[in-house]
């Protein structure tokens, strides 16, 4: 049956005109794309402002670097010019020797880091970051999570007793973004495209998903256990998702004993890198209170807790936009992610 026959009127091959009501219904009620909320529009605008500021910051940093290089070159030339010719050679040799010593020290530190991380593969605490939630996140949220992972690896590498980190479920956009990290292919870390339930299927009884929704409080870390952290930014959109996943898979769950030691000024939502750093601090100190106060930012603690523990208080972090700017991965290429913090909210523990 042709379209004309189906509608009963109109010219051949031309559908009848739509009323305003029909057009409005199709555009709003039957549209496959939901209307964008005001909060989403504000978030988009904030993201655009951040992108613009990031571009400006990158250009300014490039220009500043150029000026600094030129300044150092002039200082070097002036230094050489002020030294008698018979002493100039010795001066140059001393500078070369100093640079060589610095390079040797960096090499020693690098080798020591590799040794510690390789030892952790055999004897360290296993910690998994579950990356199977990337399909629930926006591109900017994925980038934020990638930076949190960068910081996790950097902090872990600096520890005297590092954990053995795992990244599981590395697929799609998440995998693409991770591979853009300078030196990622050389990281001493387990990278699995498979989900942890498959990659660690022979150790299912040892899996423990860390989630704030659990009724079990984590009192002590067990080297035989494998602790899983949900890699999900803006978890408020997906409340209870990690707990539900663990229950469906039939694996153990636990939550950090935060409420036993401090009061949170808001929800007990921490970033992936904060959770990893807390675990690393506990491995070092075996003290939850010390670990929490060393890692959880002051802005997330209640006033009473902050005032009562000024010795352990960490400096309050910058506001959201400035923190996002500081998350720029372009600033970390030389350090290969060793000094970049990230503060997007993820799994609540």
From TrEMBL:
The active site is at residue 234. Residues 1-80, 301-349 are annotated as: Disordered. Residues 22-34 have a biased composition (Polar residues). GO terms for molecular function: tRNA (guanosine(9)-N1)-methyltransferase activity; tRNA binding. It comes from the Eukaryota. It is an enzyme of class 2 (transferase). Residues 113-303 form the SAM-dependent MTase TRM10-type domain. Its EC number is 2.1.1.221. One of its GO terms (cellular component) is nucleus. PROSITE patterns: SAM_MT_TRM10. PANTHER family: TRNA (GUANINE-9-) METHYLTRANSFERASE, TRNA METHYLTRANSFERASE 10 HOMOLOG A. Residues 314-327 have a biased composition (Acidic residues). Coiled coil: none annotated. This is tRNA (guanine(9)-N(1))-methyltransferase. It catalyses: guanosine(9) in tRNA + S-adenosyl-L-methionine = N(1)-methylguanosine(9) in tRNA + S-adenosyl-L-homocysteine + H(+). It comes from Pisum sativum. Residues 48-77 have a biased composition (Basic and acidic residues). Keywords: Methyltransferase, S-adenosyl-L-methionine, Transferase. GO terms for biological process: tRNA N1-guanine methylation.
């Amino acid at each position: 049956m042709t379209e004309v026959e189906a509608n009963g009127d109109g010219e051949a091959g031309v559908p009848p005109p739509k009323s305003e009501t029909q057009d409005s219904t199709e555009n709003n009620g039957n549209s496959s794309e939901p209307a964008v909320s005001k909060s989403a529009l504000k978030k988009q605008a904030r993201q655009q402002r951040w992108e613009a500021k990031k571009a400006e910051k990158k250009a300014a940093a490039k220009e500043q670097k150029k000026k600094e290089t030129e300044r150092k070159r002039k200082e070097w030339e002036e230094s050489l010019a002020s030294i008698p010719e018979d002493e100039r050679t010795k001066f140059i040799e001393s500078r070369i020797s100093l640079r060589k010593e610095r390079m040797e020290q960096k090499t020693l530190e690098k080798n020591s880091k590799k040794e510690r991380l390789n030892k952790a593969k055999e004897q360290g605490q296993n910690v998994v970051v579950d990356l199977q939630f990337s399909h629930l996140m926006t591109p900017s949220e994925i980038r934020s999570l990638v930076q949190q992972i960068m910081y996790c690896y950097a902090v872990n590498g600096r520890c005297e007793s590092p954990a053995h980190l795992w990244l599981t479920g590395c697929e799609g956009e998440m995998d693409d973004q991770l591979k853009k990290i300078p030196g990622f292919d050389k990281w001493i870390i387990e990278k699995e495209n498979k989900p942890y339930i498959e990659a660690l299927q022979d150790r299912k009884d040892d899996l423990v998903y860390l989630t704030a929704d659990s009724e079990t409080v984590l009192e002590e870390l067990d080297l035989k256990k494998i602790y899983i952290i949900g890699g999900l930014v803006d978890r408020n959109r997906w409340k209870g998702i990690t707990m539900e996943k663990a229950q469906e898979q039939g694996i153990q769950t636990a939550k950090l004993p935060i409420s036993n030691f401090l009061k949170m000024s808001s929800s007990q939502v921490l970033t992936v890198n904060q959770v990893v750093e807390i675990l690393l601090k506990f491995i070092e100190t075996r003290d939850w209170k010390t670990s929490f106060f060393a890692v959880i930012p002051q802005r997330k603690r209640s006033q009473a807790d902050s005032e009562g523990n000024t010795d352990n208080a960490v400096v309050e972090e910058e506001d959201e936009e400035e923190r996002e700017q500081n998350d720029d991965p372009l600033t970390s290429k030389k350090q290969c992610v060793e000094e970049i913090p990230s503060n997007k909210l993820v799994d609540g523990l």
